Each structure stands twice: as C-alpha cells, then as structure tokens.
Amino acid sequence: MIILSCNSTPYVQGKRLYIAKCQNCHMEDGSGLASLIPPLKNSDYLGKAEIACILINGIKDTIFRDSEYLPREMPSFKTLSATEVTNIVNYINHSWYDQFKETTILQIVAVLDTCLVN
Questions:
Q1: Domain that holds residue 51
Q2: What's 82's domain CATH number?
Q3: Which of 29, 30, 90, 97 could hold 46 in an S-S bridge, CB 3.0 to 4.6 Å?
C-alpha cells in the first residue's frame, strides 16, 4: 500500500506557529508593516540558525537590516520549545530565503545554548 499526502505545504507546524506568533506583525507574506515592522523577506537574518535567539530573547533596542541599525523592539517567545523554534525557523527560511537549507533541532539547541536568555 502506498500512502500519498495531499499536503503540498511543507513545515505545517512551523506555519501554524508563525500564524500564531509572528504573522500579526510580519504579515502573512513576510513583508512586515511599512517602516514599523521589518520584513522577513530578504532579511539579513534569514538562513541563519541564530534567528532562534531572536525568537527566544526578542529584541530590546535595535536591529541590523539592509546594512543599517534601526530602532525596533520585538517581544520574546521564551515559552517556545526547541522543536517549536526549529519549526518556525524552517518555515520562515523555506518561505523567504532562496538558498534554503533545513535547520535541524540539534543546530537550534546548540544556538539556544549560546543565547543569553534573561
């Protein structure tokens, strides 16, 4: 017996978490909100597992975008598990990073171990 999936959307769990935690600010298409919320599309953070630290710790003062520092604030999501962070990172990178390569939970755990969690 061969079972085929009709689901053409990879990273379904990551998409669900993105909708619940990120989409309100970063929009469904990752475009952000004008000059208020930075886009995820073409972000300097895409393709890097270090985005996990931003998810867990948030941003308190500035972000680096398009080769400049911008004053921004982002809430932390400290209650997310490493699995949930991995799912979000893979969904974001798959959606908006041309050179997507899957990030493993082991990579996320290693990065989270280096984060300064308040």
A1: 12-114
A2: 1.10.760.10
A3: 97
**Which H or E element spans position 55?**
helix 51-57
Structure tokens at 41: 């599309």
The answer as to whether 6 is a domain residue is no
5 lies in some domain: no
Is 89 a domain residue? yes
Torsion from C-alpha of 53, 58, 62, 64, nearest 10 degrees: 40
pLDDT digits (tens, 9 = 90+) for 24-37: 999 999 998 877 78
Which of 54, 33, 108, 118 minimizes the C-alpha distance to 62?
Answer: 54
Q: What is the pLDDT of residues 38-85, one digit of tens each?
A: 888 878 777 777 789 999 999 887 666 666 666 678 899 999 999 999
Q: How many domains does the chain have?
A: 1
Q: What gap in Å lies between CA 79 and CA 15, rounded to an integer?
A: 17
